[in-house]
Amino acid sequence: MIPVNRPHIYESDKKLLNQYVNAGWISSESPSIKDFELGLAKRFKRDFAVAVSSGTAALEIAFKIIGIGPGDEVIMPTFTIISCAQAVTKLGGTPVYVDSNIDDFNLKVEDVERLITKKTKAILAVHIYGLPCRIDFLEKIARKYSIFLIEDSAETIGGDLNGQPCGSFGDISIMSFYANKHISTGEGGAILTNSEYFTQQSKYFRNLCFSAERRFLHSDVGWNYRMTGLQAALGLGQLENLEYTLSRKQRIAAIYDELFSEIDSFQLPLKTTEYAENCYWVYPILLDPNSRYDAIDVISILNTRGIESRPFFYPLHLQPVFGLDSKNYNLQNSERLAKYGLYLPSGVGNTDEEIIAAAESLIDILNGV
Ligand SMILES: *Cc1c(COP(=O)(O)O)cnc(C)c1O
276: Cβ–Cβ under 8 A, 6 or more apart, which residues? Predict the structure, then answer.
């Protein structure tokens, strides 16, 4: 079976991991945590970074510390991971969904401003599949209405927009270091910000809201969202190797692009836009709605041929967990993306041979071979 993601652990990652472990450091007290946080802040041009246990945890802390609660609305794309919406609903807030573009899968920034009400407290900008959304436009809107802007850069680690690194936009940015992200610690995440207050609050909420005056005295409800020292040691290595990871992702995309150059039955990911280069978190394709297969058909046929792939996100406004009435929503692009989109093997550890085999299988399937 060719896996959809094969992570790559660099030799230098292992060396760093050994170094900290041999010195007796494994928990969140490890100096690797501070080292990793400093490294993240420096690489992504932020004043501060706070390492946490996942990207989901980072989102939950971000919405908590900007004060989201009952009655508050947060505008976000419907085409994203469930973590984005649940981080808001768990606090009693309400996600307000925006449709997405067919070409780059990112939220339609032109639809955002008319969704702003007196209850709007924040916009969540999510960069999808490696291509940044127009967060520069969202910054202007957030400033105009004095609302918070949160950036989810889990899928654009190492990407930039007009030369400015993803992870440095808005009031707070979050990242995920799950095994398929550009920096991987197995599980993990981070909050990045220029605010000393948000940094202190993030550390407070990630660690059970221990009070500064007296140990084991608590005035708020927090989480144990601490990252382990083992993860941070791995992360330090992954951060050092980020430029190689990015170049490997470009290479994988170039192989697919070339093998698919004659194809007209599906849409390839955009290589560049006027403002950004794709950093290819994954290699996503969108089948033609007139194609005889939808994404789930193609995924299951690929699977019988030994190739793992994944469907696109399922829109948040249609998630059973939220029990919304679909009749109240007209977010058709996101529904089309969910039906016809899939992504192919593209892990840093996937070999050229695996990429070629996946591409050739897909071409055969669509040619009815
Ligand atoms: C991966 C991802 C997350 C969640 O990260 P976890 O570390 O898996 O919790 C959040 N947002 C986006 C856009 C992601 O792709």
Answer: 131, 132, 159, 160, 161, 162
